[in-house]
């Protein structure tokens, strides 16, 4: 079986050794929950479940539990693993629906379910993944079920807000941050909250962990939006400028429109939005320095995330494991993270 944690993590025991074992359990839980047999129904599900990404949401759930559960109790660990599996299934459901809404042909360099099996199958596959996630959370208890439901509501509202702003040259920073908070950051906040809660963290500590997850999610999405504009397809697994082509104007474009509206508006409005037109757009954005401003905004969220967990009770060593996991499993924002968690950390208060 392929390693779920990249090989580089072998140099950082015991945290990543524990993660490796628990992520295998998460994978088994996901596969058991989504098992519907071979054939046309199982194929679309396997498209996601048996081809996972970095499993960052399960990792965030697990590590948020580790920092509070030093006893590693068996029953508690089983519940955390199930919660981690539920978080990933919920995430996969949103990916399936996102690809359908965006009419995306590829994700991570592979065909999407809608491209491979058709729109109707993609819609039902997303629904089925959502049903599987709901089944997992219902086993955990009423509280976890309610938290998952509230999170799904935030995700949907964030995505709907983004869709409502498609093609809107008047989109504001507040509009953008509100959408990102729902569609991306809400689930990361819930991963950190539920993981810490299942490990016995106090209510204030759970809130701190949720804030950490939310800030990390905001930084991740901002940087992902930067990559969508500037990174080559070989990095992102999708065409450059896909957001702009779909009429989704993210933070760098919002900043640029405030300064260079006439020329940029002309480029953004004209269709088809070709590779040549995207190059023109990038030249305008580069001239205005908006990429650097977006990166600084993402770095600010990282600073907020780390400041919060440093305020946890002294017995909880949360910064080092959370920082290590974020750096190694989220290389997109690795350059935004401090090298150490000690006093020489440039982000240390």
Describe the structure.
The radius of gyration is 20 Å and the shape is globular. It is built from 16 helices and 2 strands. It has a two-stranded antiparallel ribbon. The model is unreliable at 1-12 and 341-349 (pLDDT under 50). β1 and β2 (110-111) form a beta hairpin. It is mostly helical. It has one domain (7-331): Farnesyl Diphosphate Synthase (Orthogonal Bundle), CATH 1.10.600.
Query: Termini separation (Å)?
Result: 43 Å
Shape: globular
Number of domains: 1
Percent of residues in beta strands?
A: under 5%
- The helix content, as a percent range, equals 55-70%
Instruction: Give the oligomer, counting copies of the same chain as homo and different chains as hetero.
Output: single chain
The biggest sheet, with number of strands, parallel, antiparallel or mixed sense and barrel status, is: 2 strands, antiparallel
Overall pLDDT confidence:
85
Q: Do you know the CATH architecture?
A: Orthogonal Bundle
CATH homologous superfamily annotation: Farnesyl Diphosphate Synthase
Number of helices: 16
Whole-angstrom Rg: 20 Å
Structural class: mainly alpha
Write down the CATH topology. Farnesyl Diphosphate Synthase
Task: Note the run of SSEs as H and E.
Answer: HHHHEEHHHHHHHHHHHH
